[in-house]
């Protein structure tokens, strides 16, 4: 059974770039690595409905915090069998976003912290009721909100299908979500967490993660 590793962070944090560097390093070392990104736009009806709602469709769906959280959670539930197969067939499965993303954004929309009822509801829903695999390690890519917003704007300007949605345009929400992410990492929510920054070397981080999972001890940077 492979290790389940998750990269989390704000919209525009650079998760895709960091993930690509991690995968390249692990594959160079002979590890068999698979990747999956949530939400699974273009593959999941729930993910597509959520994306459409955040761009003004489907009436007042986007205004319901729980309705949006359920759409993201159902996307992962539908991918559970695929995820378990990937874990059975690979040494590492790297996810771009997972359950902690839903917990952070849902709590932030409710103006709650990581110890509030929203995070507990997401934990119970996705890990207990839906039975999703628990991560072996989660990486928080922590970047300033202004930098993440700038990257999201640049991405929207250069990629026709990546226009910013309501969450990405809400600076206050991004600040609150970042705070909840910090709390989740500090609490080591559901697994060990590592914190990376804009200058973190993906190659060194890949080595640190491998050592952490192998030794069972944290590393300090």
TrEMBL record:
Classification via PANTHER family: THYMIDYLATE KINASE (PTHR10344), UMP-CMP KINASE 2, MITOCHONDRIAL (PTHR10344:SF4)
Gene3D superfamilies, per database record: P-loop containing nucleotide triphosphate hydrolases
E.C. number: 2.7.4.9
Family: Belongs to the thymidylate kinase family.
The name this protein goes by in its record: Thymidylate kinase
InterPro entries in the cross-refs: P-loop_NTPase (IPR027417), Thymidylate_kin-like_dom (IPR039430), Thymidylate_kin_CS (IPR018095), Thymidylate_kinase (IPR018094)
Class of the enzyme per the UniProt entry, highest EC level: transferase
Ranges annotated as spanning the membrane: none
One GO BP: dTTP biosynthetic process
Organism for this UniProt entry: Rhodococcus rhodochrous
